[in-house]
Write a structure and sequence with these properties.
Elements (H helix, E strand, L loop, with lengths): L3 E6 L4 H12 L6 E7 L5 H12 L6 E2 L5 H12 L4 E4 L4 E3 L3 H12 L4 E9 L10 H6 L24 E4 H6 L10 H12 L3 E12 L15 H16 L4 H19 L9 H15 L9 H11 L3 H12 L14 H11 L4 E8 L8 H13 L4 E6 L13 E3 L3 H9 E6 L14 E4 L17 H7 L2 H8 L4 E3 L3 H10 L5 E3 L8 H4 L2 H11 L6 E6 L15 H8 L3 E5 L9 E5 L2 E6 L3 H7 L2 E4 L4 H5 L6 E4 L3 H8 L13 E2 L2 H9 L6 H14 L7 H10 L29
Parallel strand pairs: 1-2, 1-4, 2-3, 6-8, 9-10, 9-12, 10-11, 12-13, 13-14, 14-15, 16-17, 16-20, 17-19, 20-21, 21-22
Antiparallel strand pairs: 4-7, 5-8, 6-7, 18-19
Helix pairs in contact: 1-2, 7-8, 8-9, 8-10, 9-10, 13-15, 14-27, 20-22, 21-25
Length: 733
């Protein structure tokens, strides 16, 4: 029987779950079991937990449906636990080094107490000083074990469940579990304190709680705030059943209603039915107020008296006077030009056009990428929608004739942005764009992240300087309602890079549908358009951008490479889109396809890919064709740009570090041998999870047509997908 059982609910925190699990498994005290609780097998968090269970026998995952909420997840872990002591750790939390050893030592000092409270640290997600809110609550408690009447202020309702260790037998004997619904910590903490006979405290930080940028879910607006009153009533009813003394009941009552009044006085938490909430709270207050209870002083005391008197009208007026403030100036749109600005503000006052969808890709570079693929599928499945693509003036010529467009900065541009129900972008819309109530913003992304993105770039000075204001970046992210992911790796990294309240759609990238829907005739057509000679193998060379470099240099002598590897090959050069110089150029053995509109077409034409650290490798892997990584400056790139995993440890194929090594893998045929295929298969298993040729349909049905998740076509298993055929038969030379 282990000393500790650590229960970690993980719904919605797959991106941070590894931090929590690592903090437990890295403890110097090893007598524990670790119980991650996730959704059904196959969910992002479940996959993470299963990986840990394979590596460490102390990890014993269990499952609880998302509908059961936090309480259901914790109770599922409680039922599975075997340890003497239970700890509850949220997926956003970590145990500090030495935490379990400190708890074990303290519990040996105190003996068999029922609950041991300890301190925790709240860590701001970005900047700011950490806080230790438990320290003042525990400061007045006795130094040794004590009975609850000796510390009447320690009621349990002000401490989260993860700020204490609980004797498992005590919870079982008292039949204590987390009550259903939101604010379960209030109910559980209060019941534990009511039932406990002996307590102790550890005045030491044990848990670091990592605050989410989007804040505590309990603080969001909604009807769930009525469940706070359910928890308050549960605790007060049980206190009455226990015959709690007035000395203990007074602090418990005051602390419970401090939470109630905080919600009642917060207009954003209760956008509707505030009066109903207040009336029910008033009824509880009058029914359970202890005899001789004296309200606290100051404005809080005034709120107590108004609640006791059911004086909602006065309470509301007081709240309005205290919280009146001007609206945030940043919400004012600022398009260039006074007339355009006024026109935009006027358009914002008009009703949303429920049948208008606006698309943009790469800051207006043209009709391309995921937005273009969604646009095309929407014309098929949602023909009632008017779709407008946003482009820069120099990209107008590349827009298909039958696609309606608006030039960025024009009046039409601001008009459609102001009134569109749906806004789809693979980057972000301008800062001045206002997120209107009822509008739907979809971020499609434009690649799988190898390099650090978003907020994760902050610790890398070179790229952080180029990124600009992270506050403005995240303000743009806050407009998202949905964010696309093409694999579980991306799901987890986006959670870290773009912390916000949007929903992640694991639907795949619509632009990659082409890799499964294109035919041999399509491949032949594209090769002719690009000028690939008949019978030659085309090697696509697609290096990524270097943040520490100015201008584009291939870093590789392509003419020399062609001479080294033989006449059967030609090279298609596709520089990063930052260096798009327009049009396909070149001739002979090296063909510059940087300016070709569609990277998907270029990939279809290529028999193999040579790249360094470009995200094109993740897309190209869908074709199940050879990939060679040319990593001549990996250490520099990794140090200056930051990466999410070691590409050289988990490559999609052969790796070359010098021009000579690169030429050699093509001369000896190892670029397409069995080992290369095995590496590619593992890579595809990890990064081609959701790209199956139906991503655009899933997006249109869910986002634009509003179909429920259960009606969306499921992802076709990887083994059943058939990629577009390559032009050349790839055999060992």
């Amino acid at each position: 029987m282990p000393r500790f059982s650590i229960i970690v609910p993980s719904h919605g925190v797959a991106g941070r779950l590894s931090l929590a699990l690592d903090s437990v498994l890295g403890q110097s005290f090893g007598d524990f079991e670790l119980i991650p609780v996730s959704d059904a097998p196959g969910s992002p968090a479940a996959d993470v937990a299963a990986g840990y269970a394979e590596r460490d026998c102390r990890v014993a995952p269990v499952h609880a449906p998302p509908t059961a909420g936090l309480a259901g997840a914790r109770n599922a872990g409680l039922r599975a636990a075997l340890g003497d002591w239970l700890l509850f750790l949220d997926g956003d939390d970590v145990l500090v080094p030495g935490a379990l050893a400190a708890l074990d030592a303290r519990l040996r000092e105190t003996g068999d107490v029922d609950v041991l409270y300890f301190e925790h640290e709240r860590i701001p997600w970005w900047t700011g000083e950490p806080g230790n809110p438990a320290a003042p609550l525990l400061a007045g408690a006795p130094g040794g074990p004590f009975a609850p009447p000796e510390a009447v202020g320690l009621t349990g309702v002000q401490l989260p469940a993860w700020s204490a260790a609980y004797r498992r037998v005590f919870l079982l004997d008292q039949e204590l579990a987390f009550p259903d619904g939101h604010f379960t910590d209030v109910g559980f903490g209060g019941l534990v304190a009511l039932c406990a006979e002996r307590m102790a405290v550890l005045r030491q930080i044990v848990v670091r709680h990592l605050l989410r940028r989007q804040g505590n879910r309990l603080n969001l607006p909604g009807e769930h705030h009525f469940e706070l009153l359910d928890q308050v009533e549960l605790v007060l009813v049980r206190a009455a059943e226990h015959g709690l003394s007035a000395r203990r009941l007074g602090p418990l009552f005051e602390q419970l209603f401090a939470a109630v009044l905080k919600t009642a006085a917060h207009p954003r938490r209760l956008p509707r039915r505030r009066r109903t909430f207040f009336r029910r709270a008033s009824g509880l207050y009058r029914r359970y107020r202890p005899a001789g209870f004296r309200a606290p002083g100051g404005s809080v005391g005034v709120q107590h008296r108004l609640l006791a008197q059911r004086a909602y009208t006065v309470f509301r007026a007081l709240r309005g006077a205290n919280q009146a403030a001007a609206k945030v100036a940043s919400s004012v749109p600022r398009p260039h030009g006074l007339r355009t600005r006024l026109r935009y503000r006027l358009q914002l006052r008009r009703r949303l056009d429920q049948n208008l969808a606006v698309y943009c890709a790469y800051w207006g570079r043209g009709y391309t990428c995921n937005p273009a693929a969604i646009h095309a599928k929407a014309r098929e499945l949602a023909p009632h929608l008017r779709s407008v693509f946003l482009v820069e003036p120099d990209a107008v010529d590349g827009v298909p004739d039958d696609v309606e467009y608006a030039v960025i900065g024009s009046r039409k541009y601001w008009d459609v942005l102001a009134r569109a129900k749906y806004l789809v972008n693979n980057a972000n819309f301008a800062d001045a764009v206002v997120k209107r109530r009822g509008s739907v913003h979809l971020s499609t992304q434009h690649g799988t992240p190898l390099k650090k993105m978003g907020a994760d770039q902050a610790t890398y000075p070179v790229v952080a300087a180029a990124t600009g204001s992270f506050a403005r970046l995240l303000a743009r992210v806050d407009r998202w309602d949905y964010n696309l992911s093409s694999n579980r790796h991306s799901t987890q990294m986006w959670e870290s890079a773009y912390p916000a309240a949007h929903e992640t759609l694991e639907y795949g990238y619509p632009r990659n549908d082409a890799y499964y829907t294109s035919t041999a005739a399509d491949v032949a057509r594209v090769r002719r358009e690009l000028g690939v000679p008949e019978g030659r193998k085309a090697l696509l060379y697609a290096p990524t951008h270097r943040d520490h470099a100015t201008g584009f240099e291939t870093g590789l002598d392509l003419d020399a490479l062609c001479e080294e590897i033989g006449d059967e090959y030609v090279v298609l050069l596709r520089a990063h889109y930052f260096y798009d110089r327009g049009g396909a150029r070149g001739g002979g053995r090296v063909i510059d396809v940087t300016g070709h509109r569609s990277s998907e077409d270029v990939c279809l034409a290529a028999d193999a890919l040579i790249t360094d650290y470009s995200s094109i490798m993740f897309d190209y892997a869908n074709l199940d064709r050879p990939i060679v990584v040319y990593a001549d400056d990996w250490e520099v790139y990794r140090e200056l740009r930051g990466v999410y995993f070691d590409l050289l440890e988990e490559p999609p194929g052969r790796v070359a570090r010098t021009p000579g090594e690169l030429a050699a893998v093509f001369r000896d045929g190892s670029w397409a041998d069995e080992e290369a295929r095995a590496l590619r298969a593992a890579f595809r298993e990890r990064f081609c999870q959701f790209d199956d040729g139906q991503a655009a349909e899933r997006v249109v049905r869910r986002v634009l047509l509003g179909e429920p998740p259960e009606a969306i076509p499921p992802v076709i298993p990887l083994a059943e997908r058939v990629p577009a055929p390559a032009a050349a038969t790839l055999v060992r030379s």
